[in-house]
Amino acid sequence: MDRRAFGLGAMATLSLSACASASPKLLSYNGPEVTSLVVNKGARKLYLLHNQQILREYDVDLGFAPSGTKTKKGDGRTPEGTYLIDRRNPRSRYHLSVGISYPNSEDIAQAKAAGVDPGGDIFIHGQPNLRSELRRAKKTPDWTAGCIAVTNEEIEEIYAMVTEGTIITLRP
């Protein structure tokens, strides 16, 4: 069994699970609970926190139009605000993914007032599974349609560490 320590005083570990049927490596996590996630869009950083302690930090790629918050479907922006991790996808087109509860009721009301579709399907995910999409992603920073992208190894860690219902705050 492959174990990796994260250099935390609590000796957190990730390990490979015995799930042989899944193509991505599904890891298990044995460490401090991830109580929240914070994305700092300007710094292109994602932080996994246990209360105020940073457990992990990742560099991220964002939507292809990263400035400002998402207001409508197709705008290429990554949302800003507070949401929840609301789903997990082990069969993602982007290795693995965890879903973000965008749009919330405020986003829906603002989009309705503007007469637009707020969009949806915002995830933290790995790299594209298709080679044609992977080539495009490697050429351009901020290549997603509004999601938060990390490496495949990093999404494996995030997928293991983060549970549904965890708060995520996306900051400018």
Contiguous low-pLDDT stretches (5 residues minimum) are: 1-11, 15-22
Number of helices: 3
**CATH hierarchy, class:** Mainly Beta
Give the neighbour order of strands across the main sheet.
6-5-4-11-7-8-9-10
Count of discrete domains: 1
Shape: globular
Short synopsis of the structure:
By secondary structure, the protein is an alpha+beta fold. It has three helices and eleven strands; from the N terminus they run ββββββββαβαβαβ. Strand 4 (36-40) and strand 5 form a beta hairpin.
List keywords for this structure.
alpha+beta, L,D-transpeptidase catalytic domain-like, 172 residues, single chain, 3-stranded antiparallel sheet, 8-stranded mixed sheet
